[in-house]
């Protein structure tokens, strides 16, 4: 008997739990879709159309909603002889400048009409922009240009300035570009220069995080398709939704959790997926996320995290950086490692905040105490302890923190009722 055998007891069709799956309908986004539709309507009416900027945290449905709207737009536009519509989609995930985005756009446009790709290096930026304008002019009509995950270009945002103005500046004649920019980075949006903001974000649509009920409604049709009848306990979808809503409000996270729970049930040889599988799946995913984040940390970073975990175990959070710093220097002392300045510790804390490991609060106590920051873990203490335990030199601390937390009754499960 081989190591692997096909097992179809739990999953009927895992496709609906895949990241690339396109659902039949978009749920719980009526308001946003209505706004979106209104923003795109002028294309059908052959009127000038504003650019659109979608923003909201990861997993809130920006990409899937855009695919959905564009496919309707294309279908419906086809019924009018006087509308000449095309769409180009570029995911900027691995593109870090306007130059790269312009090259990607050119190649996307060329590929769609069987032309040759251009090289990703070797041109001046202006030359690439010129080629892009030529390609667009060849296409003609209204061209909806989707720039997904556009925040990756950072400050190199020339394309967001040039493209919307291509027509008014006379670089293109026969096309009307409509740009749909999508970003999950609020800072990117706030930092757009006013001149870019003016044109790109003429119409803004915010995608807020989902609450537990909305996630349930998104998960249900997928769960229905993904699992055999009778496999899923009634509380599984609600619990996945509750966990994801409490953490990020991301549909992606909720879907992953459900899939992971199914996989754990399958691995158990269990005939049903239960609440326990969800809780284990949640632990598993949290640990993965944490491990990933932790791997980026240096010993100094680990020491800072360890200090914070200790305060957490004593139930003394949020903690001010100067108090945290004292604990940190003591930990360094016991590790026989040099400690760094309080300022550097704050840098480490800010990195950890970016990784989603900790939460930072900015306090302003007026003139007397001034402004300062307070910190607490943004992941379960239990998960930090697991990781510290498996990080060399930190095993002993993990033990100490564990018993402190136990004394304070802090290691119970994180969601006991939902
Ligand atoms: N309202 C919804 N109805 C059905 N499925 C949804 C909905 N919102 C999100 N999803 C699903 O959740 C997953 C994440 O959604 P999507 O990729 O659109 O998020 P996003 O906002 O683009 O996130 P990111 O900023 O990380 O790119 C996808 O699998 C998508 O199909
Ligand atoms: Mg997306």
Automatic annotation (TrEMBL):
Q: Which GO terms describe its biological process?
A: DNA replication
Residues forming the Cdc6 C-terminal domain are 305-388
Keywords of this protein's UniProt record, alphabetized? ATP-binding, DNA replication, Nucleotide-binding
Q: Which GO terms describe its molecular function?
A: ATP binding; ATP hydrolysis activity
- Enumerate the InterPro entries for this protein: AAA+_ATPase (IPR003593), AAA_22 (IPR049945), Cdc6_C (IPR015163), Cdc6_lid (IPR055237), ORC1/CDC6 (IPR050311), Orc1/Cdc6_arc (IPR014277), P-loop_NTPase (IPR027417), WH-like_DNA-bd_sf (IPR036388)
Binding residues annotated for ATP, in chain numbering? 60-64, 210, 222
Domain AAA+ ATPase: where? Answer: 48-206
Give the family from UniProt: Belongs to the CDC6/cdc18 family.
Q: Which HAMAP family match?
A: ORC1_type_DNA_replic_protein
Biological role: Involved in regulation of DNA replication.
Query: What name does UniProt use for this protein?
Result: ORC1-type DNA replication protein
């Amino acid at each position: 008997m081989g190591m692997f055998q096909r097992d179809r007891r739990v999953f009927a069709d895992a496709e609906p739990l895949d990241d690339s799956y396109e659902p039949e309908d978009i749920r719980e986004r009526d308001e946003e879709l209505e706004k979106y539709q209104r923003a795109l309507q002028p294309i059908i009416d052959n009127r000038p159309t504003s650019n659109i900027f979608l923003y909201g945290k990861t997993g809130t449905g920006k990409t899937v909603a855009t695919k959905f709207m564009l496919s309707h737009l294309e279908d419906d536009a086809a019924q009018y002889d006087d509308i000449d519509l095309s769409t180009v989609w570029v995911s900027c995930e691995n593109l870090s400048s306007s130059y790269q985005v312009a090259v990607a756009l050119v190649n996307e446009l060329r590929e769609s009409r069987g032309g040759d790709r251009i090289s990703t290096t070797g041109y001046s930026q202006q030359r690439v922009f010129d080629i892009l304008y030529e390609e667009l002019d060849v296409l003609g009509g209204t061209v909806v240009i989707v720039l997904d995950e556009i925040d990756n270009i950072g400050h190199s945002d020339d394309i967001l300035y040039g493209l919307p103005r291509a027509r008014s500046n006379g670089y293109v004649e026969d096309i009307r570009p409509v740009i749909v920019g999508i970003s999950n980075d609020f800072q990117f949006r706030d930092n757009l220069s006013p001149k870019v903001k003016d044109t790109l974000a003429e119409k803004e649509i915010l995608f807020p995080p989902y609450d537990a009920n909305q996630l349930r409604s998104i998960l249900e049709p997928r769960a229905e398709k993904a699992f055999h009848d009778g496999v899923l306990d009634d509380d599984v979808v609600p619990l996945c939704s509750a966990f994801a809503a409490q953490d990020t409000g991301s549909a992606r996270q909720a879907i992953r959790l459900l899939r992971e729970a199914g996989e754990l049930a399958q691995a158990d040889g269990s005939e049903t997926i239960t609440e326990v599988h969800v809780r284990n799946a949640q632990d598993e995913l949290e640990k993965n996320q944490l491990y990933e984040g932790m791997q980026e940390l240096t010993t100094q970073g680990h020491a800072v995290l360890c200090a914070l975990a200790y305060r957490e175990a004593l139930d003394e959070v949020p903690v001010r950086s100067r108090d945290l710093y004292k604990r940190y220097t003591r930990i360094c002392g016991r590790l026989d490692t040099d400690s760094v300045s309080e300022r550097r510790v704050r840098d480490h804390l800010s990195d950890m905040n970016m990784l989603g490991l900790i939460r930072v609060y900015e306090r302003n106590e007026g003139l007397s105490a001034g402004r300062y920051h307070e910190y607490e873990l943004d992941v379960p203490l239990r998960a930090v302890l697991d990781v510290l335990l498996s990080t060399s030199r930190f095993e002993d601390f993990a033990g100490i923190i564990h018993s402190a937390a136990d004394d304070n009754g802090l290691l119970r499960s994180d969601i006991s009722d939902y």
